[in-house]
Write a structure and sequence with these properties.
alpha/beta; 18% helix
Length: 107
């Protein structure tokens, strides 16, 4: 089974279908036309998510009902104020990585 998915720099990717996957980690960066991730609600083992520079609805991801397995959600928009507010909101929900930096790469 696919457990870790990292997609970067894919300008043509507009939709991602996770149906059938059982991911622990999901990293989506610089996929500027990516506006839909189907099957995200089915990812009941997900532990870490990183999303930056996509067309995904970051407010919806911030407010998403993540599974109990989720440990860290990192979302980045073009607004420093939004990022600061969102990281604080996620930290209140216990969804903040233990340290800054490339937390996704070290596990």
């Amino acid at each position: 089974h696919l457990r870790h998915l990292r997609i970067e720099d894919q300008a043509q990717l507009s939709r991602l279908d996770l149906a059938g996957a059982s991911l622990y980690r999901l990293w989506l960066d610089n996929c500027k036309t990516l506006s839909c991730v189907a099957g995200l609600h089915e990812q009941t083992a997900l532990q870490e998510v990183f999303v930056s520079r996509t067309a995904l609805d970051l407010d919806a991801l911030r407010d998403f009902a993540w599974p109990p397995t989720m440990q860290a959600v990192r979302l980045f928009s073009g607004s420093k104020a939004w990022n600061t507010r969102t990281h604080a909101m996620l930290a209140e929900r216990g969804l903040s990585p233990p340290h800054d930096g490339f937390w996704f790469l070290h596990r």
